[in-house]
Amino acid sequence: MMLKQTLIKAAETGAAVMQSYFNGKFEISNKEGINNLVTEADHASEKAIFEVIKNDFPDHYILSEEAGEIIQDSTYKWIIDPIDGTVNFANGIPICCVSIGVEQAGKMILGAVYNPFMKEFFFAQRGFGATLNSKKIQVSTKTEVVKSSMVTGFPYTYLDAPNGPLQVFEKLIRKGVPVRRLGSAAIDLCWVAAGRFDGFYEHQLQAWDSAAGFLMVEEAGGKVTDFKGNYYSPYQPHIIATNGLIHDELLAIVNGGEVHMK
Ligand code: IPD
Ligand code: CA
Ligand code: CA
After folding, report:
1. Are residues 78 and 122 in the same domain?
2. 63 FRET partner, CA 20 to 30 A, in 52, 78, 191, 214?
């Protein structure tokens, strides 16, 4: 499948660019929100990824974090985050990746998330499962939130809303539930897919943060929804991604419910 090969090549190319800048000197500028950064490496990775895609599929639609949209009349859409985990990247923390999802007629069909620093390449194809470095991965089997290990992320600008990021976080940690904050939503999702975490939730994501990762979780046997429990769309901000078994309980907690001690 040509599409698959191009996707893998695009992720590898972006990741190589990212590696070439890591811990070196690069320009950092600010986006909206004081610590919402973009570096020279984000732009360079994006450019390299675009070249790969445009070479093989010049008429496909592209949606990418830094460059925006290349609107084309195509059923295929590439959704790209050239570096997910930019703050980590800018601080020399090797928890960052290239994330690329491919949609066909509005359905995510392929996803690739590559963290070259840990040499972890996650790949998913709808209907064919999810892999880590070519080995099948599966979600965990935990059945209770209180015994689960969680991961979340916080938006760059404080989100003051009922059941906001801090309230949900507080509720979980008050009950002793371990909640990590890795700084890359794409990696968070892949680590749920690999069974390292039992659940992930976040209040404000963009399509490029989750496009590849949500397919990874689904194809590893997990469940992904919005905060209402509806089928997940990456074009709205809320996400809950779990092993499926703790999904309803986590969904209730994110909506103001309590953590059950059982
Ligand atoms: C961010 C990361 C982070 C999440 C933020 C995202 P970026 O993406 O995925 O984990 O909490 O909401 O914006 O800016 O590093 O590409
Ligand atoms: Ca991102
Ligand atoms: Ca990014």
Report:
1. yes
2. 191
Residue 26 has what pLDDT?
Answer: 86
Q: Is the CB of 184 under 6 A from ligand 1?
A: yes
Q: How far is the CA of 123 from the centre of ligand 1 (A)?
A: 20
- Supply the pLDDT for residue 243: 98
* pLDDT tens, position by position, 185-199: 999 999 999 999 999
208 and 154 within one domain: yes
Helix (H, G, I), strand (E, B) or coil at 219: helix
Check whether residue 132 and residue 8 sit in a common domain.
yes
Point out the domain boundary residue: 109, 136, 163: 136
> For 119-132, what is the mean pLDDT?
98
Q: How many CA atoms lie within 13 A of 242 on its CB side?
A: 24
Distance of CA 178 to the CA centre of its chain: 20
Give me the mean pLDDT over the 79-100 stretch.
97
Residue 215 lies in a domain: yes
